[in-house]
Amino acid sequence: NGSRFADLEIPGYGIGLVQNPGTPAPASARSGWIHIVFSVPDPARAFAALKSRGADVTTRGNPAPAQITTFLLHDSEGNEIEIVQEH
Q: Rounded CA gap, 61 and 47, in Å?
């Protein structure tokens, strides 16, 4: 489909970059990150720690606190950061 992908890795850390050329950008689009994903060993614990510090965190649906395997964090710059279960 014309998408380009770059996977950058160093021991213990990696980041994937995806570009979808030809996809029209919405009028509200801005330059920069739109969606970043990090994996952690225990998403439920990370969610609780961030929430207790006043972070803007949300889950999709309504999972029990101990069953959280993914959640969203919105930073002060408007970026959406997804935290997922480490594989």
A: 14
User: What pLDDT shows up at residue 36?
Assistant: 79
Checking DSSP bridges between strand 70-74 and strand 56-58, what pairing results, if any? antiparallel
Residues 6+ away with beta carbon under 8 Å from 86? 39, 40, 41
12-48 pLDDT, tens digit each: 777 777 777 766 666 655 555 566 788 899 999 999 9
Cα 81 from Cα 48, distance rounded (Å): 16
Contact (CB, 8 A) for 68 and 43? yes
**Collapsed DSSP state (helix, strand, coil) of residue 84:** strand
Burial class of residue 81 (count of CB atoms within 10 Å of its CB; 0-12, 13-18, 19+): middle
